[in-house]
Amino acid sequence: MAKILIVDDSPADIRFMTEALKGSAHSCVTLTDAKGAEAAVEKERPQLALLDVVMPERNGYETLRALKRLPAAEGMKVVFVSSKGAESDVKWGLRQGAVDYLIKPYTPEQLLSLIDRHV
């Protein structure tokens, strides 16, 4: 069982992800504002973070760079979840240090399979 941090400015997307994870053994911590990501990681110590790329104030790439500086995030894997699905977007996300990139829209099965691969 893993603790998963979900950071997405869309309540509908968060609801979709948490519903997909309901039947699994994983627990979720959700944020609609990327600025709270560091505090959430310090407090919750998730094994995996699902980060939206396009968010107001601070995008997913900036959030990942901030999290990489935290000792509490050591060993935590990050997956970008985004509607930005061009090959260049995916390559850039992986170059930033994400272990995977899930393109919206996706199915609950795709999400669970991706999570099982990384935790």
Automatic annotation (TrEMBL):
Residues 3-119 form the Response regulatory domain. SMART domains: REC (SM00448). This is Response regulatory domain-containing protein. Pfam families: Response_reg (PF00072). The modification 4-aspartylphosphate is found at residue 52. Keywords: Phosphoprotein.
